[in-house]
Amino acid sequence: MTLTLPTLQDVQEAAQRIRPHVHKTPVMTCETMNDWSGLRLFFKCENLQKGGAFKIRGATNALLRLPEPRPVVTHSSGNHAQALALAARQLGVEAYIVMPETSPQVKKDAVKGYGGRVTECINTLQAREDTAHRIQQETGATFIHPYDHPHIIAGQGTLMLELLSQTHDDYGTQLDAIIVPVGGGGMLSGCAIAAKGLDPTIRVFAAEPLAVDDCAQSFAKKELVPQTRPHSVADGLLTSLGSYTFPVIMDKVDAVFTVTEEEIIKTTRMVWERMKLVIEPSAAVGVAVALFRKEQLASFTKANGEPIRHVGVVLCGGNVDVKKMAALF
């Protein structure tokens, strides 16, 4: 079957398809964060999603698009692993999950708790792919890519449909821009397709750890730069862009911002303490851009030339090893 890049219609259809299986997560505001950023920020709380992250959206959509129920296999540092295991349990199929040995124990435990069969490997993309391929050959399972697949991308984009609707209906606000963390780019691509499809003038910004800045490099060079040094406290953002996600990012993303490890940790603590939300460092990356890249953000304006003011920020997940994080604080 030939697969093509998803459209706004694909995202809208995915939203209807997965609606019975996922939460419509809240959108929250925080005056302290507004004061610190100089913006009016609207936080899409996917840390409160089933499985603790946005990934359940794409995993559920992908499983529901299979021609028949059958075992599935994937590789993931944690959030997609949990999502696929949970979605598979909800839909009554078996899930084999390859996880790097460095994945947080809380994520490994959650995958097993959802019924996923975990196989650990060394922390390289090649090892993850090789191990998943071996299991696929041994079990006959269908491989569900953690991010680089049109059905995954469309599913992740459903969170942006909600965010834009909620800010309009609940707050009477039309967003000028969105900030979305990027690892492999499935969420960023889906959100960009949804946002630009509904409002071509909205600014789409990617947020990435400086320590794993392959998206920023790829965006600047206009060619895919693979990730070769995946080490960051934002462990959910360590993968390379894919063949589906990269062209969407080049077409629909306005800029890619990077933040340091220190800024990520500081922001995580700020959100915990001031917003009373438990987020993982990957989710703090977008917030850190709003707080620490004010001048760069200010260089972008709305279509009418006015400054960007109303900004949506995706809090992509809350699956964190609390003891490990407390030690970093």
Automatic annotation (TrEMBL):
It comes from the Eukaryota. Residues 18-298 form the Tryptophan synthase beta chain-like PALP domain. InterPro entries: Ser/Thr_deHydtase_PyrdxlP-BS, TrpB-like_PALP, TrpB-like_PALP_sf. Belongs to the serine/threonine dehydratase family. Keywords: Lyase, Magnesium, Pyridoxal phosphate. PANTHER family: SERINE / THREONINE RACEMASE FAMILY MEMBER, SERINE RACEMASE. One of its GO terms (molecular function) is ATP binding. Its cofactor is pyridoxal 5'-phosphate; Mg(2+); Mn(2+); Ca(2+). This is Tryptophan synthase beta chain-like PALP domain-containing protein. GO terms for biological process: D-serine biosynthetic process. Pfam families: PALP. It comes from Bifiguratus adelaidae.
